[in-house]
Amino acid sequence: MRSLAGDVIKHAFSQQTDEKLHRRLYAAICSCILEGGLKPATRMPPSRDLASELALSRNTVLRVYEQLQAEGYISARTSSGTFVTDSVLDNLGLAPNKPPVSPATREDHASLSSRSLELLGHASASPRQWGAFIPGVPDVHSFPHRALKKIQDRLARRLRPEFLTYDATGGLIELKEALADYLRTARGVRCTPDQILITEGIHQALDLVTRSLCNPGDNTWIEEPGYWGIKNILRINAVNFSAIPVDEQGMVPPACVEPAPKLIFVTPSHQYPLGPVMSLGRRRQLLYQARETHSWIVEDDYDSEFRFSGQPIPSLQGLEEDAPVIYIGTFSKTLYPALRLGYVVIPKPLAAPLMKVHNDLYRGGHLLIQAALAEFIREGYYAAHIRKMRQLYSRRRHTLVELIISQLGEDYLGPYSSNAGLHLILQLPVGTDDSAIAQQANAQGLLVRPLSRYYVKEEKRSGLLLGFASIEEHEMAAAFTRLAGIIRINTE
């Protein structure tokens, strides 16, 4: 027997496109109830009648009715039939008589904090993280994935319970011990395993240090130009920063230190993004000022392993005993970014409280991969991989330098090149709009970054950051020729 409810369901059923008949019927009845076509207390068509009307098997209709009943859309009454549940819309928070929320109220409720809005106004992370000339991304193809996977598979066959639960100790002790040995030997860092905290990359480390040691409104020093990620972490934590100029010897500490900075963020071994190495005199001056003002220096040693000539530059942290330095490093550049593992070497007075803050805020994990990485380091794979990549990146850097000279001229090479790292600066003529060039290049799949975006003050150098690590040498010439064409159009 035909019914009004059956007609409503039939129309809704005809609008559904799912190939599975039971899913089409389920979606049709749900939409009828939620949109008011079948009101609360409406009697549903008998299963046999609805099956006949829709040319379905009765079992299909019964299956859908059972699901709808289980989810509270409909209910069966003995000897009376099946009805739309009286309170279904109230239960779902969709009752028609519920006062509507005005657009203004919704907008107020959804508004972001002033800190978030400021950060969004300076957001700089690229939506694409692989391709020609992307800065800061290593060659992930060359990583010995099989070696690490073999270690990980071996550990997975005899899993320890602590690998599968929360980490409350700031990282696996085996990885901390392996890192302490490596950092003492390779970077001259003075530390013991209990001073090392494992983080999910440098950003988490910087956020932890900022939250733990700064109050809103406190002052900090950053490099000018400097890494955008530090600035955004300070912005979201409502911490002020003063941009301190960089020259060929690194950060130029001001003579007047009022107000005294709580934190001083530096990249002394390979300044980011310009590339100079902080001189010994500047290092000692900065350490002296930090002691005098009771400040902490935050040393970001993000890619110090990749120096292509001369001896490795030792860490600032290891220059003096008990130096007021928080040393931060990452595996994102030496291994691959998706690993999301970094580390902090914390001065002894801060180690216990910062580890407790980290445990409460971030709830560390990835203990199985940490265990595998510890063995990867101890078995020599890590050092061997760095040696291999140092040679590879040196060749790629040399190729890019030759392309810049041959197609644009030596004047386009940045003045602070230290023959290190994963990128170099292509210097543009004064007054050139590097942001416009970067935008045009990005549209053609050339992932360069404008140097001007790294400055805070009005006086800015114009240039492009060109990464050379993630593009093979035989592909570099064609890509750079396209980039050079864009540059010529904008500078002639």
UniProtKB/TrEMBL annotation:
CDD domains according to UniProt: AAT_like (cd00609), WHTH_GntR (cd07377)
Keyword match Metal-binding: no
InterPro entries: Aminotransferase_I/II_large, HTH_trans_reg/aminotransferase, PyrdxlP-dep_Trfase, PyrdxlP-dep_Trfase_major, Tscrpt_reg_HTH_GntR, WH-like_DNA-bd_sf, WH_DNA-bd_sf
Gene3D superfamilies named in the record: Type I PLP-dependent aspartate aminotransferase-like (Major domain), Winged helix-like DNA-binding domain superfamily/Winged helix DNA-binding domain
GO molecular function: transaminase activity
Glycosyltransferase recorded as keyword: no
Keywords: Aminotransferase, DNA-binding, Pyridoxal phosphate, Transcription, Transcription regulation, Transferase
Pfam families tied to this protein: Aminotran_1_2 (PF00155), GntR (PF00392)
Highest taxon listed in the record's lineage: Bacteria
Residue ranges of every copy of the HTH gntR-type domain listed in the record: 19-87
Family: In the C-terminal section; belongs to the class-I pyridoxal-phosphate-dependent aminotransferase family.
PANTHER family associated with the record: HTH-TYPE TRANSCRIPTIONAL REGULATORY PROTEIN GABR
Protein name: PLP-dependent aminotransferase family protein
The species this protein was found in: Citrobacter pasteurii
